[in-house]
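G.,

No rush on this.
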Amino acid sequence: MLKKAILLWVFLLYLTVGFGQRSVQFLNNNLQSAISMAQARNKLIFVDTYAPWCIPCKKMEKVFRDPELARYFNKTFVNLRVDMEGATGKEIHKKYNVIFLPTLMILDSDGNVKYMVDELMTADALLAVAQKIAEPEVYVYQPAENVTVFDPPAKQEIVTKSVVKKSAPGVTTSVSPPSISTQDVVVESSKTVLNEADIKTSSSVTPDQVINEPIIEGTIGEEKILYVLNESDDVPPEILFQESYFRLQLMDGSHKETAKLYIQSQEDWSTLKNRKFIYDFLYSTDTEEFQYFINNRDAFENQFGKENVKQSVEILVSRRLITGFPRPTLAEAKKLYAYLDHSNSERMAYEYHLNNLFLAKNHDEFIEVAEAYLEEFDFENQQVFYRLANLIADGGDQNLVESGIEYIDKAIELNDANYLYYDTKAYLHYLNDDKKKARISALRSKEIASKLGQDTQKIEVLLEMIGELE
C-alpha cells in the first residue's frame, strides 16, 4: 500500500513538472520579489505586462506555451507577470513608462531594462532575443528570410565629460539616421536585424533633404560609448540628435528620453531636419510632439506624402485605442477618432467607450453612457439594449430589474429571433420572482436555440432554477 502511494506521488510529481515545462512559469504582481529572487539565483528577469481587457495580451499565451521557449525561460529567467490594472501595474507604468500592452521586458537583477518591446512577438523571435541577451557569448542568430539589415553609420570619435560603455553592433556601411520601430529587433555583435513587415509604415519615405550625419560616439575596442544624460549636463543638441537614433537600436526605451531632450532644445520645430526627427520618433498620441504633428499636418504631408502621414496617424491612433494603457476616456476617444477624419467620429468614440465599460463590467457608468448614446445617436441599437439588460442581470440589483426588462424588451422589438435576448429576459423575470413570465421566456429561448442548432444546456439549467421558485 505504501509502495503504491509513493509511486502515485512520484507519478503526480512527474506530471506536475512535465506540465510546468510546457508553459512559462510566472510569478504574479510582485516586482520586488522577482528582483530579490533574481539576485539570489543570479538570473535575469522577464516581465510580461497585461490587462484583463487586452486582447493582444491573450494571444501571447500561446507563445508562452511553446515547449522550447518555456524550457529556456524557466531555466534562465525569473519570470514575472504583471496585471497593469493593479498596484504593481501602476508601479511598472511609472518606473518603465509602459504605454502599450503587451509590453515585454528583460531586466537585470537590479531591475534595469536590458530589452523592451511593446508588440506581439512569435516564440522564435522572443527566444532569439532572450538567448542573445542572456548568452551573448554563445548566441549565433540565423537571419530569417525577408529581413532588412541596418548597419549604423561610420564612427566619429569624441570626448565627453561622463561616459558609459555599452556593447553595440559593428559598422560596415554609412547611412543616414533611420526611422525604425522597436518591434522584433535583435541587436547582434555585427548587425541589427528587423522583420521587414514590422518596420513602421511611415518610415519608408525619406525626403530629399534627409540629414546625412554620422552618429557621434567614442570607441574603445569593440565597444561604443554613450553620453550619460544627467539633469546637470548641458549636452549639445547634435549629440542628442545622433544619440537618439543610436539609442533606438538598444531596445531599452532610453531613446524616448533622449529624443525628447533634443526636440525640447530646438526653438524651431518647423525645419526639415526637425520635422523628420519628430516624424521618426513618434510613438504615442499622448505627447507634445504628436500634437505638433497633428496641428501641422499639412507641412508633414508635403514633406513625407499625404498617404504616409495618414498611415502613421492610423497606426498611432489604433495602437492607443486597442493596446493603450491606461484606457482612453470617452473624451480622449473622441479626439482620437477625430484624428482619423471620420464624419461619425463622435458616435464611434461612444461605441468604443461603451465596449470598454461593458468588458470591465462597469455597470453604473455603462448605463449612464449607454442612455446618452441611445438618445443622441441610435435609439435602435439592439446590442446596446441587450448589454444594458445583461449588466443589470449580472449585477443582480433588484432595484434595476424592471429597467433591465424594459431594455431587453426593446432589443426583442428590434429582433425577436435572437434566443439570447429571451434567455436574458427569462433570467430577469427570475430575479423578479415572476415564475410564469420567466418560464415563458426561457421556453421561447430554448425553441429558437434548438431550431438554430445551438446548445441549450444553460437554458435547461435556467428552467430548473425557475421550477424551484415557490
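When you get to it, here's the other one too:
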Amino acid sequence: MNILRSWREQKILLKRIFPILSDEDFEFKDGNKESMFKKLEEKLGKSKPELELIFAELQLL
C-alpha cells in the first residue's frame, strides 16, 4: 500500500467517516500501534483485514 496521506489527514478522515471515534482512540504508547489498531477494531466492530482495507481506501479519497 502506498501511503499518500499523512497520519493526521487519515485520522481526520476516519473521524468524519466514523463519528464515534475520538482523538483518544488514536493514541498509542511506546510506538505500539498494534494496541491502537486493536482498540479501533473493537470500537468499530471491524476485523483487522477490514480495517486495513479502510486505511487503503483512505489513500484514494
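The chain has three helices and no strands. The mean pLDDT is 88.

Enjoy the weekend,
O.
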